[in-house]
């Protein structure tokens, strides 16, 4: 590996000197594309922030697939590239969530956003190549980024000391999913993630990581996207395993016959609409200022869950397929057969429905969404993997801990497991207090949860069975792990039919109970 350290007296000038960490030591990574100067975050963790993995998708590259990185984003191979600060996040629409500012990026927005953040244990400078955990954020393909406080993996890396964690940015909303029929390639935000994986395959060893031991993780939309790549790149997944939190590919993908509705609406708003010549319309949209495009997507177009995506993934039969095709491919094993860890929260709907600070959410709707959109989809996917003899471990997160639960009406809600995974709970502002014993239960539960992921990352095929006596999933045996039942720091193996039996005839989602701004209360914002 090629991580070295620069002790900053006058070895080089400019931004790197000014970014030198408190220890006076700057980590360097020498790659094929040049040398990157990172920053020491603690006495245990180095970081290389804002490292580009593709050309900026600006100007004529707007609405095109990610292009291989050229010299425009690098100083040159002999100079130092500053990797001490986050890049801007991709343009997005931040909607109101129960976690408040914890899910808001710490940086500005830009189209020049296709970057990675690499968190490296300091001991990696001298040891063997380490396993890599690549984590993809959620946010309905509308918001999110590597600089979101909730997704900061510094504590996870410091605790484990032998795992590198990577986070990334990818294009969102209309910039990532324009869906114009004039385009030759769709779902650019998904293609961005594949491009990032390819960059990591070629360069991660220079940061101390093992390219043959890269585990892709993600939550919600991040899990959806990762899962999609197992089908779209079944013969060359790059990754060696996948960990999916609250997501599966079956919940995304608009039909192609109406997928461009938002693009048309925005084109009309900015004066680019051309019914007779969609290519001319697309060329016009490429010339519009990015801020103007963003603000042409209004909060009047929010989806049923109250989030304004401004454009979302579509079925193109290249990166995303129809549900019938996924059923066929899943049954026949036409997907990348890598070890899999997947799970959901016990009350996913509490975190995706529109909500009121006092009244909470409509629990009937929340329960239906948890069953139909989350549980039944991963039940289907876990059965495909078991049928095709793919090692898979499945969990259901039950715990409710005030440290990660800002409102007392929340149950085990969508995204509550993320701060537990990364140890980023201090980013959350709680609106009620917890007892010392409850805090102790949370600390112990968090240690278990992080341990599960760390064991899987280190050894995807055997780590969970060896360290937790957790058998691989079977639909007909006690193999589903219930995490933290009754808010305790314990785990229990359960028969999955307890939750999956209803999937034989899942409850229909009563869309008539939703209004145009979400569930029972407004609050979405652009």
Automatic annotation (TrEMBL):
E.C. designation(s): 3.1.1.-
Keyword Aminoacyl-tRNA synthetase among UniProt keywords: no
Sequence ranges assigned to domain Carboxylesterase type B in this UniProt record: 28-354
GO molecular function: carboxylic ester hydrolase activity
Keywords recorded for this protein, A-Z: Hydrolase, Signal
InterPro entries: AB_hydrolase_fold, AChE-related_enzymes, CarbesteraseB, Carboxylesterase_B_AS, Carboxylesterase_B_CS
Signal sequence interval, chain numbering: 1-18
Keyword check for Signal: yes
Family per record: Belongs to the type-B carboxylesterase/lipase family.
Protein name: Carboxylic ester hydrolase
SUPFAM superfamilies, sorted: alpha/beta-Hydrolases
One Pfam family matching this protein: COesterase
Lineage of source species: Eukaryota, Fungi, Dikarya, Ascomycota, Pezizomycotina
């Amino acid at each position: 590996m090629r991580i070295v350290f620069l002790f900053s007296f006058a070895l080089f000038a400019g931004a790197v000197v000014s970014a030198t960490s408190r220890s006076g030591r700057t980590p360097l990574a020498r790659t094929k594309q040049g040398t990157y100067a990172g920053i020491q975050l603690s006495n245990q963790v180095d970081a290389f922030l804002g490292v580009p993995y593709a050309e900026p998708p600006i100007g004529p590259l707007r609405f095109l697939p990610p292009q291989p990185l050229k010299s425009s984003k690098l100083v040159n191979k002999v100079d130092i590239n500053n990797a001490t600060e986050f890049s801007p996040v991709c343009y997005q629409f931040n909607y109101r969530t129960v976690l408040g500012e914890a899910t808001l990026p710490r940086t500005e927005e830009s189209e020049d956003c296709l970057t990675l953040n690499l968190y490296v244990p300091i001991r990696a400078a001298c040891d063997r190549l380490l396993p890599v955990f690549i984590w993809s954020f959620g946010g309905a393909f509308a918001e999110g980024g590597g600089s979101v406080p909730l997704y900061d993996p510094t504590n996870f890396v410091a605790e484990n000391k032998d795992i590198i964690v990577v986070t990334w940015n990818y294009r969102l909303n209309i910039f990532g999913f324009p869906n114009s029929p004039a385009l030759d390639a769709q779902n650019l935000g998904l293609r961005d993630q594949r491009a990032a994986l390819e960059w990591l395959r070629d360069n991660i060893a220079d940061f101390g990581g093992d390219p043959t031991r890269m585990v892709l993780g993600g939550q919600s939309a991040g899990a959806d996207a990762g899962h999609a790549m197992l089908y779209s790149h079944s013969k060359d997944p790059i990754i060696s395993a996948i960990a999916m939190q609250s997501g599966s590919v079956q919940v995304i993908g608009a039909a192609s016959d109406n997928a461009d509705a938002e693009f048309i609406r925005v084109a009309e708003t900015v004066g680019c609409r051309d019914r007779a010549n969609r290519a001319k319309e697309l060329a016009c949209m490429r010339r519009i200022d990015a801020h103007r495009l963003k603000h042409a997507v209004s909060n009047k177009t929010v989806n049923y869950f109250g989030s304004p995506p401004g454009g979302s993934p579509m079925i193109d039969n290249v990166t995303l397929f129809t549900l019938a095709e996924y059923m066929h491919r899943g049954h026949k094993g036409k997907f990348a057969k890598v070890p899999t860890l997947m799970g959901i929260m016990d009350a996913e709907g509490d975190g995706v429905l529109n909500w009121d600070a006092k009244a909470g959410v409509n629990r009937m709707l929340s329960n239906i969404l948890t069953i139909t959109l989350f549980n039944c989809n991963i039940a289907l996917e876990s059965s495909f993997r078991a049928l095709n003899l793919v090692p898979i471990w499945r969990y259901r997160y039950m715990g409710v801990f005030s440290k990660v639960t800002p409102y007392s009406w929340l149950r085990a809600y969508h995204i509550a497991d993320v701060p537990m995974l990364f140890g980023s709970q201090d980013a959350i502002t709680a609106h009620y207090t917890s007892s010392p014993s409850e805090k102790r239960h949370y600390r112990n539960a968090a240690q278990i949860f992080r341990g599960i992921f760390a064991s899987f990352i280190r050894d995807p095929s055997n780590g969970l069975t060896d360290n937790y006596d957790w058998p691989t999933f079977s639909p007909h045996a006690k193999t589903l792990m219930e995490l933290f039942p009754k808010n305790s720091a314990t785990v229990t193996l359960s028969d999955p039919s307890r939750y999956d039996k209803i999937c034989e005839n899942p409850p229909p989602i009563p869309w008539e109970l939703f209004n145009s701004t979400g569930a029972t209360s407004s609050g979405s914002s652009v």
